[in-house]
Amino acid sequence: MKSAIALALLIGMLLPLQALINASLGKQTTGPLFASLASFVVGGVVLAVWWLASKPSLDLAALGRVPWWAWTGGLIGAVYVAAATMLIPRMGAAALICLVVFGQVAGSLLLDHFGVLHARQPIDGLRVFGALLVIAGALLVVRPWQQA
């Protein structure tokens, strides 16, 4: 469990760096959409090599039985990467990530509560309190009451 926590923290630390790198690439090339596409192409190549190195088996019939919505994860990832690439120059890494984390907490609570694609985990007072702390932390970092 400790290594899983460490990996999750490392990934969390790398996400703002990814957005900053993509924004920089966008400034140096044709814009944030190209930078987002480049990020996905490079990531796709890395994942393809990693997957092939794992000596996978491929069941084409199983791919045909997958529901349409199971393919939408890439769409969500593309929207996140493109939006982060466009937003990070305007709001900075800390504000972007705080707002994204707040959105993740709120969305996760709803998905858990209704048991979307996994076992139901109802919202309780402690989880709501935790979400309120995330909101408070995000507001303290973003400070929407101050002008830029």
Structure in words:
The chain has two domains: 80 residues, no CATH class; 57 residues. The protein has 148 residues and is mostly helical. It has six helices and no strands.
Compute the separation of the termini in Å: 41 Å
Helix content: over 70%
Number of β-strand runs: 0
Mean pLDDT: 94
Query: What gyration radius follows from the Cα positions, in whole Å?
Result: 18 Å
Q: Tell me the number of helical segments per DSSP (H or I, 4 or more residues long).
A: 6
What is the total number of structural domains? 2
What coarse outline follows from CA principal-axis ratios? globular
Largest sheet properties: none
Q: Topology as H/E string? A: HHHHHH
Strand content: under 5%
Structural class by secondary-structure content: mainly alpha
Residue runs with pLDDT of under 50 for 5 or more positions: none
Keywords summarizing the entry:
single chain; 148 residues; mainly alpha; 2 domains; globular
